[in-house]
Amino acid sequence: MHPYRAVPADGPCPPSFQAGRRITFQLIGWSLASFTLACQSYEPIPLQLADHMDRVRERIVLPPKASPPRTDAFDLEDGASLAECEALSQFYNADLRLARERAGVARASHDNAGLWNDPVFQFSGGQILSPKSGLDYSGLLFLTLPVSGRLQVQKDRANAALDVELRRIADAEWRVRAELRTAYFQWSALDRRRALLRELLDQVGRIGSIASQLETAGVLSRAQSRLIRIELVGRRAELLRVQLEADLARVRVFGLIGLAPDAPIELLAPSVESLEDTGALTPERILATSTELAVLHAEYELSEETLRLAIRQQYPDLSLGVGPGSEGEDTRIPFQLSLPIPLLNRNAQAIAKARASREVARVAAEVALERIVRDAERASMTLRSVREQREAIEGELSPLLEEQSRTIDELAGLGDVDAFLLLETVSRRYDAASRLLDLEVSEATARIQLAQLVGPPIQFAQLVGPPNPEPAAQDASSAATEAHQP
Questions:
Q1: Which of 279, 26, 316, 386 is nearest to 147 (CA)?
Q2: Most buried of the four, 263, 381, 413, 468, by CB within 10 Å?
């Protein structure tokens, strides 16, 4: 038996305690240094909307009129054609800019998917209240080993999510192109109707002067002459309405292009014949080139990868911890193994939700295919009917009106002037011309709708067909933009 000897409170610490404290401080220092070097710093970026509006106004700045003419093909000094507006929309359209930024979020997630979990440092220690006892401690560094293979599945799912966003960009570019074309033809029809109304007002004004002379001569009564003035006032009100609609349509076109409403650009009248022919409409063609179906197909592949990841997540990953430690006067190397056992939870809720979401994606694609085929058939029927109506007006009604005008001019030359017959003739000619404008817009709208539903030309089918599982699918957006050029 050794006699008990008291140790002063301010006496020297045991060597094991000093070594443990030194190792502990070293581990804590290494952890803090690693944390400082690995973490990113925050940099705020203020939202400056006023500066953005200045940039919008500066997007198109035309040179002075005295400058020499430009020789390149893209020239807005002599007006903006439909093809030039389409090119501008691919850069400045608000929806396309937002879609591309959203794809950047998917790109960031894709580039950082499948990373290992950060290591975890754990320290535990204790001091027995005994004069000769040392510090008992253990410092463990835990690392999760992804033996389940979920990291690769996370990468595959991130690749599928990025593919969805890229195909959404291609679909948005195709939709904006169709929307711009429709708005452009609507503006052109309103602008031409405005010119027709001005011509009609000039003719009705001259007829009103003739009616006033006939009223003075006693040929027409005041009530009859008043009817012509009523027609003149009504047409003036119609001109004001058409002017407003034309100005609003022009602002809408500029909005789709991404320019300021007061941009100094003159729009040039388009031609229906400039629209491309979609060719034969078959389900196989729609399946191969429809941008909308390409998005839905990619979303279905994403649901497959989501289900695959949920199933893989039910398998456990191995967590391994190892580090220095001591127990009394003895130095030891403790280690721990952690392996969850999938018996109760098994990620059942996430798996069931992923299976149901996959069925939703399947039905969404099937329903969209049915709707696209149906809408394409309706657009084809509308196109055939509109062409028949145009042929009837241009081939039968317009010649009759021209003949009627010549007859009235001949009668007027003989001194037989009928003011109401003149008014009826010029009104019918305006109505026929206005009806032709409506039919032209309807034909253009039907052709644009067919092109939107069917998708890009067949040579670009690889851009919008079933998603490519390889990461190379990220180039679909830029290639689809080139495909849209006229």
A1: 316
A2: 263
Residue 54 domain-assigned (yes or no) = no
The SS3 assignment for 463 reads helix
Whether residue 222 is contained in a domain is answered as: yes
**Of 59, 141, 43, 134, which is closest to residue 94 (Cα–Cα)?**
59
State how far the Cα of 192 lies from the Cα of 151, in Å rounded to an integer: 61
Answer yes or no: is pLDDT of 200 > 50: yes
Q: 124 forms bridges with which residues in the sheet?
A: 138
- The 10 Å CB-count burial string (b at 16+, else e) for 151-178 is bebbbbbbbbbbbbbbbbbbbbbbebbb
On whether the CB atoms of residues 343 and 315 are closer than 8 A, the answer is no
Residue for token digits 């580039």?
A: 111
Look up the CATH number of the domain holding residue 296: 1.20.1600.10
Amino acid at 135: L
End-to-end CA distance of the chain: 103
pLDDT tens for 217-262 read 888 888 888 898 999 999 999 999 999 999 999 999 999 999 989 8
Q: Report the distance separating Cα 157 and Cα 39, nearest Å.
A: 26
Report the SS3 class of residue 320.
strand
| Per-residue pLDDT tens digits for 451-468 | 999 988 754 544 444 444
Tokens (6 digits) for 465: 């067909």
Output DSSP code: residue 3: P
Residue 239 lies in a domain: yes
CA–CA separation, 186 and 183 (whole Å):
5
User: How many domains is the chain built from?
Assistant: 1
Nearby residues of 265 by Cβ (< 8 Å), 6 or more positions away: 60, 62, 76, 79, 80, 254, 259
Find, among 189, 207, 191, the residue nearest to 427 by Cα: 207
